[in-house]
Design brief:
This protein has 19 helices and 18 strands. The chain is an alpha/beta fold and 412 residues long. α2 links the parallel β2 and β3. α6 crosses α10.
Length: 412
């Protein structure tokens, strides 16, 4: 069925957390110029490649718009051919949303980034400027610099002496990296979101160390005229049983405070059988661990990136999410953030039981370079003006969330 949905009806669905997927059919670079908060970008040429993994329930309501490029009808037809039965066109398209007086958010992964800004705004997540961190490095201070980005980003450019500890690994690994409680832990990313979420994760988990973010990440470092290192290979260490158990308990306490539910395989089976609701199942361990063996039906979504790119992994706002992690801490910390972002999220407890499969982490085929949005925080050759404009945009997100009024986020 192809129908229509008004901007007011769509906004109402977001406010009351009804399941709906709002799909922007433009390329990523155009999407980044402005879109509703919970829109997910899926260009028409990727529908057959991505839709069934990203929108797993064929009866979920889907709303489409294309910014006037004229592909909505074709996209609706393609989705119908795949078996989607409730596809709706946004009345007035993007212009209708705008004329209703509703907000448009720039950039990509916007609501995850806005949530990060809200965390800092509500909790006052402590930070150090780039010159302050550089002075500590030069003085040989008792610090540990933990880079919360993906390893490939860390390898491209990183702070001197930094260690790659992608976000979901922080609570699990930090005590092994900085066992001395007098060591100050500094968490960085390229910009702001992952460092704020990472540092606040350690604070929420009540590590004894002083924890700070590098304010504005590698962008701030570069704008301060400081030099980044290239090609570093330093990765987080493995943890022993006692360290993993302690991290699990710390993370479980945080998840409990956020309202995360712990479930077993029996309850999971019940969730899977509920045809009225969309269910996402994610394995939040590293891609390498996932490839060595994972539960059937669980997709690879390392936890830090799942929090950073939630709109990509889970376009159906209002869906249920179940997370799996054999060591526990990563799933609980990831779930604590998703719960605060308004998701109904569960953690699968106990050992991995049932069918296990190995191999490919079910990563979608890469998108072509054409139409891709160049992030101002990636690579090593971004103009200073673009980096500063990006920071200014992030600092404005808390006020924009308040104007938009649909997010439903809370911060513990």
């Amino acid at each position: 069925m192809t129908g229509h949905i008004s901007a007011a009806e769509l906004r109402s669905a977001f406010v009351d957390r009804s399941e709906i997927a709002l799909i922007d059919l433009r390329d990523e670079a155009t999407f980044a110029t402005g879109h509703p908060l919970f829109a997910a970008q899926l260009p028409i040429e990727r529908i057959e490649i991505e839709a069934e993994q990203r929108i797993p329930r064929k009866t979920v309501p889907i709303a489409l718009y294309d910014g006037g490029i004229g592909v909505v009808a074709s996209a609706a037809s393609r989705l119908a051919t795949l078996g989607y039965s409730d596809v709706r066109l946004l009345e007035g398209d993007l212009a209708g949303w705008r004329s209703a007086g509703y907000e448009l958010f720039e950039d990509v992964n916007s609501y995850s980034k806005a949530f990060g800004e809200l965390i800092e705004h509500r909790r006052g997540t402590p930070s150090l400027s780039a010159p302050e961190v550089k002075a500590l490095i030069d003085d040989g201070a008792n610090i540990a610099i933990l880079d919360a980005r993906r390893f490939d980003e860390f390898n491209t450019m990183s702070l001197p002496g930094g260690i790659s500890v992608p976000g979901a690994e922080l609570v699990l690994r930090a005590s092994a990296i900085a066992p001395d409680p007098e060591t100050t832990i500094i968490v960085n990313c390229a910009g702001r979101t992952r460092s704020i979420v990472g540092a606040q994760s350690l604070i929420n988990a009540e590590l004894p160390n002083k924890v700070r973010t590098l304010r504005n990440g590698t962008i701030g470092w570069t704008l301060a005229g400081l030099t980044l290192t290239r090609g570093r290979q330093a990765r987080f260490p493995q943890v022993d049983g006692s360290s993993a158990d302690e991290a699990r308990q710390r993370a479980r306490n945080v998840a409990y405070r956020a309202g995360v539910k712990q479930i077993d395989q029996f309850i999971l089976n019940g969730l899977k059988s509920d045809e009225r609701r969309t269910l996402y199942r994610f394995d939040v361990r590293t891609a390498e661990e996932y490839a060595r063996g994972h539960l059937v039906g669980f997709l690879s979504a390392p936890g830090g990136q799942l929090v950073q790119e939630t709109d990509h992994f889970a376009p159906v706002r209002g869906a249920r999410i179940v997370l799996a992690d054999d060591l526990g801490a990563r799933a609980d910390m990831t779930a604590s953030w998703l719960a605060q972002m308004g998701w109904e999220v569960y953690v699968l407890t106990g050992p991995f039981e049932g069918a296990i499969e190995t191999g490919d982490p079910h990563i979608l085929p890469p998108r072509p370079a054409a139409g891709r949005y160049r992030r101002p925080y990636e690579g090593t050759d971004n103009p200073a003006a673009a980096m500063q404009a990006y920071l200014d945009w992030e600092y404005g997100l808390v006020d924009q969330l308040a104007r938009d009024g649909t997010h439903g986020f809370f911060v513990i």
